[in-house]
Amino acid sequence: DSMPKALDNIGNLGNLTVLMLSSNVLEAIPKSIGQLAALRVLNLDNNKIVDMIPEICNLRKLRSLSIASNRVDSIPSKISQLTSLTRLCLTNNKLKSLLSEIAQLGRIQQLWLSNNFIKVIPASFWKMEPNLEYLYIGDNPLCTPPIATVEKGLKSLFHDCKERWYREQRE
Questions:
Q1: Beta-carbon neighbour count of residue 2 at 10 Å?
Q2: From CA 113, how far away is CA 123, in angstroms rounded?
């Protein structure tokens, strides 16, 4: 059940652009993964990963990151450094909250967050409006904004988030 020793050296594969490590019973992400400067696609679905290590945030060319069906309970605050990211999938994990930094992912088009324990969508999410096309957030115990607002679609969600954001700025 522990990480194979060979994965400790994965950072040596500097030209690697796609890395698929799904369904490998991994409990941890190798720290050397942050050295894969050319990586564009990283799939770590269906493992036993608890920590989304900050080293992932060094992958400036990463366009698609999928860590679905794991045990991830938080997102590193440096996530905003993934400026090329267009798709982020964290479905079926143990996330209880979302960082406002996630809204700084300026190119994000698809955000998959369903089947977690998220109660609040941060007010800063309105900043994702220009590019976000798909938000999958079902099966979360959402309180803010109300689920009825979310069910009306992205336009309604962005409107709610923007109003909350402006209120927070005045306080």
A1: 8
A2: 16
